[in-house]
UniProtKB/TrEMBL annotation:
<dbReference type="InterPro" id="IPR036873">
    <property type="entry name" value="Rhodanese-like_dom_sf"/>
</dbReference>
<dbReference type="InterPro" id="IPR001307">
    <property type="entry name" value="Thiosulphate_STrfase_CS"/>
</dbReference>
<dbReference type="InterPro" id="IPR001763">
    <property type="entry name" value="Rhodanese-like_dom"/>
</dbReference>
<dbReference type="Pfam" id="PF00581">
    <property type="entry name" value="Rhodanese"/>
</dbReference>
<protein>
    <submittedName>
        <fullName>tRNA 2-selenouridine synthase SelU</fullName>
    </submittedName>
</protein>
<dbReference type="InterPro" id="IPR017582">
    <property type="entry name" value="SelU"/>
</dbReference>
<feature type="domain" description="Rhodanese">
    <location>
        <begin position="9"/>
        <end position="92"/>
    </location>
</feature>
Length: 102
C-alpha cells in the first residue's frame, strides 16, 4: 500500500477553489482549468455538451502546457508522481497522459 510520503510530487488537478476547500497535505495545485474556466465549461455543458467538451480540452491543454514549462520542467524527470482530481478522473487522466509523454 502506498503512502503519500512515497511520492516525489503530488498534483491536485482540480480548480483553485476546490483545492482551497480541501487537498492532500503536501499536494501542489496545478489545475487543468481555472475557477472561471470550470464555471464556463460547466454552464455551457447544460446546453451544448460537445462545445463544452471542446472548450474544456482547449483550456486543459493550454494550462497543462504552462504547468509543464514552469513547474514540472524543474522537477526530476523520473520521480514518482501522484495526480488526483475529484469525480470522473478526466482531469487527472489529462495530467497522466501529459506526464507520460515527457
Amino acid at each position: 500500500m502506498y503512502r503519500f510520503e512515497d511520492y516525489d510530487l503530488i498534483i491536485d488537478a482540480r480548480s483553485e477553489r476546490e483545492y482551497a476547500v480541501d487537498h492532500i497535505p503536501g499536494a501542489i495545485n496545478l489545475p487543468v482549468v481555472s475557477n472561471e474556466e470550470y464555471a464556463e465549461v460547466g454552464t455551457l455543458h447544460r446546453s451544448d455538451k460537445m462545445r463544452a467538451y471542446l472548450i474544456g480540452v482547449s483550456y486543459s491543454l493550454k494550462n497543462i502546457s504552462r504547468h509543464l514549462d514552469t513547474v514540472i520542467a524543474a522537477r526530476p524527470r523520473h520521480g514518482r508522481v501522484l495526480v488526483y482530481c475529484f469525480r470522473g478522473g478526466k482531469r487527472s487522466r489529462l495530467w497522466f497522459d501529459a506526464r507520460r509523454a515527457q
